[in-house]
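Weekly structure sync, notes
Attendees: PL (lead), two postdocs, one rotation student
Agenda item 3: pending single-chain targets
PL asked that the sequence for the first pending target be pasted directly into the notes so everyone works from the same version. It is reproduced below exactly as submitted, 183 residues in total.
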Amino acid sequence: MSEKLAFLCEGANDVLVVKSIVRQLVPDRVITKVRQLGGVNRLLKEADRHARILNAKGYFVIAIYDEADDKDENLILESESPGLIFVPARRKIEAWLLADDDAVKRASGLAFRGPFPTDRIEDPKAVLLHHFYRAVRERKRSYIFKERDFFKAILLNWDLERARRKNISLNVLYESINRKRRA
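Predicted structure, written out during the meeting:
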């Protein structure tokens, strides 16, 4: 396995989720980087260039993007870097957070009942925000105001093993990383 992994993400909230995945899955001896590139089209346009630079430094690169975002699919097909794979979060990365219903309940004070797998949720970001706004309205949580706070609150107890069982695209990422680790 490459002893260096780099993850390219769209935004700051995605970076929070990916860093949690890295902490739980990647051994300490593996050097990791997580970079935010700002939006799906910028990520897809610049992934190949970033991958070439990082590949030259010994990194294998995993680009994670929200499948539901409007994007130019040809950019993925045109990628020429052998040390780069694209892994879409089915719909949006918020579905990965919602997949750990235990962490969502601990963070919000309200049970989250799915649907599972959370890949099936049409707009997971809207579901996540609605769930937390409801928690604030019902006075279960009064200290959480911003979307980023919701992410952080869930990630305090978010468990990759629990979540990957209830989200297909997260499990694909998990398996991709494990295949790379065994190679």
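Discussion points:
- The CA atoms of residues 48 and 80 lie 7 Å apart.
- The two ends are 5 Å apart (CA to CA).
Action: rotation student to compare against the earlier draft before next sync.
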